[in-house]
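OP here, attaching both records as promised.
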Amino acid sequence: MVLFGIVVILVCMRGWKEGASELIQRVKDYFGAPRLFFSLFIIFILTLFIIFVYYYSYPFQIDDESAMYFLSALVQSQAAILAIVITLTLVAVQIASSHYSPRVIDIFKKDPTIWWFLCYYGFSIFFGLCILMMMPVIRNGNLCILAGSNYYSYHIPLKYWIYAVYLIAIGTFVVLFGYMRTVFDLLKPSNIIKKLSDNITKENISKHIKSVEEHEKDRTIPIEEDPVQPIVDIIRSSLIKQDFATTSDGINTITNRAIEIMNPNEYKISEHFCDHFERIGKLAVNRGDEESVIEVIKNLEAFGESAAKRESALTVVNVAKCIRSVGKTAAKKRYADATRQAILCIRSVGETATGNLTRNLLGGALSQVARSIGAVGLSAEENELTEEVWQAARSLVFVGIFAEKKTCENAKQQALECLARLATSSKEIVESAIEKKN
């Protein structure tokens, strides 16, 4: 009746489709919470017990000795199952923490499903033990309740207590399936990364940065935990194991969180993210994983373009420096695709900045973009990556055009100087790139 009333109200207020959609979403949200799931299950068990109490008319007789043996066996089996489940859970947590990061333990500690499962199982075991110990009293006597100075006596037949033990025991076995599914989901790398990303907030990062600065002045001040570091640890472990799927998932998650919490006036936060990206990119280069290097560079491009659209020139500068560092490291290892991707991504960030930043902010950003492309191009030239040198020269021409359109003379001059340095030893390649652009 209550559900029907809710449907009627929603239909009258917002229409049938809107009301039904909202109701379905509320039901999904309601049953999605672990503690509410357990609460509903307990209510279901109690409802069945009440139905048995009031409507079960078949005469039920049970021998005291048989009931004691059965309850004893049931409690022992539940205790054994609980011990095995806890042992396997601890083993799973240990394996996950050693495979990914010790901080994975916090995920299991904070998950409410585990603690609700233990509470429900413990309640079932101790309830069975209480009925087992009180069987003589329940069989022969009444249940007395003291309320103030008055005693109230109730006689509940033993069979109803046995019913309650049975129903709650059935519930423990049903809940066990849900608990195992929850543990399996928690062990997935993607879910671990998602839960760890919830700690990446502007407040937590600001606390960490401030504590680092204070620690440099006074070594006795402890450093607050870096919320990005747990995911970086998982990425490092995945790079060592050549698990590109987990590596990509971790990099994308960090990028998404960086874009969400980025503030144009707090460039230190963007610098903090860029430092992590730079270390990940260099580690990927050293591990020989060019695919992961390209993934880092592309995510930095997305971060830089988002910063340009929010008119954060300092973040654009940080991103250009970061891609330059990763690109130079890739060029030294003669990773042509990664080097070319670094050049193109820096140019793309500069182009986005040209269309969104004001002239006062654009000059410094484009100058850094030109220097970064020039540095990667020179590194490619030193390692005989001819096509990448051509791409760097062509990109510098583009940056020069961007600067000329916005009358940023310093940035234009910087692009010409970098182009001249490339032409010192690769004159024909630079001339080819200029002719191609013309």
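Record two, same layout:
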Amino acid sequence: MFFAVDYAVDNFIQCAKLAQTIPNNGGGVSGIAALGDEMFVVRWNNANLQVYKHNSDDMTIQRNVYVGAGTNTLRSVAACELNQCLYVSEQNSQMIHKVSPVTNNTVKRWSVGGQPFGVTVNSAHNLLVACSNTHKVQEYTTDGALLREINLQPDVTYPGHVVQLRGDEFGITQYSSVFRYCEVGSDGKIVKSTGSGQMSSPYGFIVSKGGKGFVADYGNNRILLLNSKSFSVEQLPDAFNVGFNTPYCIHFDARAGVMYVGEFGSGRMLCFKK
């Protein structure tokens, strides 16, 4: 999951090495999520979720999960362990698809009234959606009922990804007008921000309760290590200097000590392990 949990981030940062590079298997990677022992990958020009074995040396596609006819603008995927389902955002149709990994198809879909980019599941097992062109964050139940809509303040535009942090604050990457990572309250106002002038089109990210996180700095072809307590960007070890090409999304499994980075331009996935 992407909501803030107590990752052993410091240990991972010091020990992790690039273990695998999974080549392009059908388009730019825009979302990665794991459920059980399977990993689900969204690709931009593909109407299917590709399914791999999670944390395995065998990174061949095991099967495909069909999302929808003509679906070619899939933006993100999130997994919910409680409800045993996946949520996939589709940009152009402005839809959320609730997908069953058991029946291999969409079991429900609903409109969000704005282009949905990043999606995550929070600690209440609800779905959070970053609505890019309407500059909002929406929270839904697993059945698609809208619980609340947060109108981001005028200087927070084009959210690329959203994660619920401690209490009722949200981490957001902003990829247009101003490139940055910021935290906002439930009123949509900025609590604090960083990265202006340092980031270029940041999208996916993770954040820990301990205050460390990774940000996919798409436009600068790198992964940034963010200290969300001091709101400063820190240096990553040389093991992460692997020549990224438009990194877009990040999936981190602290228990397994594995992090996947999906690249939008190259279509590769890079797997780092302790």
